TrEMBL record:
Compartment(s) of residence: Endomembrane system
Protein name, entry field: Uncharacterized protein
Cellular component annotations (GO), alphabetically ordered: cytoplasm; endomembrane system; membrane
Organism of derivation: Adiantum capillus-veneris
Topological relation to the membrane, as annotated: Multi-pass membrane protein
Length: 250
């Protein structure tokens, strides 16, 4: 059941390694993801994002996240996203203390990635996630909830579920990267398709533009929590206590 294994936790021997892994993975992901946005702006002299550009940005995010999750999976679990961390906390897969430290590492990694981009991209200003013209705030909020639900549900099904060990667990980073790329292909035209408060925080901090920034926190956190609750409550059910009958006894 959701919340049944929620715990405050304590500092453990591997905590620092896990936090460092989350920091590095988030830095790599945001550097590549936001870098693709800045590269498109540079190549098109600041023109609006075209369908081809959206495909390139989505693909870059998906590939970068695939790598970021894969390199941290055996150390920290490869969250690379405060919404994923929160969704796993709701299901009791990470303690409160470690979750908070993960958040700090993820936000710091995203901020430093954007600062580095500003240094190496001719002082280009980062591009915070923003609502498209005419997109209502409530619609963007619902969109972030839905697409983040899909992301965190994928994390549960391919990585957190004990039954996903083996071949399914091996493809978890790929599946996570693909769902993010697919969601950006759709949601990118409306609100940028964040699904990740850290991914939104880094560019907003460096550009010092927090317009509607709360949408990219509330939406993903709600979506992540909802995915954790649904998966724990309806999918990750306890095994039956009785032994199954042999088929010949039916």
């Amino acid at each position: 059941m959701p919340f049944r294994n929620v715990a405050i936790g304590r500092y453990e021997d591997d905590t620092l390694k896990c936090v460092l892994a989350e920091f590095i993975s988030t830095l790599i992901f945001v550097f590549a993801g936001e870098g693709s946005v800045l590269a498109f702006a540079e190549l098109t002299s600041g023109a609006d994002l075209t369908p081809e550009g959206l495909v390139a940005v989505a693909l870059c995010h998906g590939l970068a996240l695939f790598v970021a999750v894969a390199i941290a999976a055996n150390i920290s679990g490869g969250h690379v996203n405060p919404a994923v961390t929160f969704g796993l906390f709701v299901g009791g897969h990470i303690t409160l203390l470690k979750g908070i430290l993960y958040w700090i590492a993820q936000l710091l990694g995203a901020a430093i990635a954007c600062l580095l981009l500003r240094l190496v991209c001719n002082g280009a200003t980062t591009s915070p996630h923003a609502l498209s013209t005419g997109e209502p705030v409530y619609a963007a909020l619902i969109l972030e909830v839905v697409i983040t639900f899909g992301l965190v549900y994928t994390v549960y099904a391919t990585a957190a579920d004990p039954r996903s060990k083996g071949n399914v667990g091996i493809v978890a980073p790929l599946a996570i990267g693909l769902i993010v790329a697919a969601n950006i292909l759709f949601a990118g035209a409306f609100d940028g398709g964040s699904m990740n408060p850290a991914r939104s925080f880094g560019p907003a901090l460096v550009a010092w533009d927090f317009t509607n920034h709360w949408v990219y926190w509330v939406g993903p956190l709600l979506g992540g929590a909802l995915a954790g609750i649904v998966y724990e409550l309806f999918i990750m059910c306890p095994e039956p206590s009785h032994q199954p009958l042999p088929t010949e006894e039916y």
